[in-house]
Amino acid sequence: MAPPPSGEFSIVLTKSFGATPTEKTEIIGEPNRFATIKVTNHVGAQNQTIIAKQGTIQADDVNELLSIVQPLGGLPSNPDEDVYGFDTRIILSTFEVQWDNGEDVEGAEARTNPTEENKQTFKDVMDSINALARQTAKERTS
Fold first, then answer.
1. pTM of the model
2. Beta strands in the chain (DSSP E)
């Protein structure tokens, strides 16, 4: 996974590790600047109804988020198994960290089971992204 161009970052959290996601949160921006957040929920029969929310993340919150996700770099990843046990996939592409718990990542620990500390770090990042999404992403009105 190559770093994004010109300092841009991308953080994607999907709920459902291996199947079609039921919720997807995407954050795109640059350090020290505003970022955009988009949350897409698939609900209803066979997840056919899509509810989209979007918003803007303030620069201070962007910088805090980037420091929160930093510890994921180097943690174990496994494309075949949800080793963290939260049925959630996080994909990071920042200038400093390129990491995806659903792919083999260069520089990440070998396919070993994460420690309890690794799982807690993953959960803390997941919870922070979800909290930021709840605070900033609002339903779009036509």
1. 0.86
2. 9-15, 23-29, 35-43, 49-57, 88-93, 98-100, 138-139
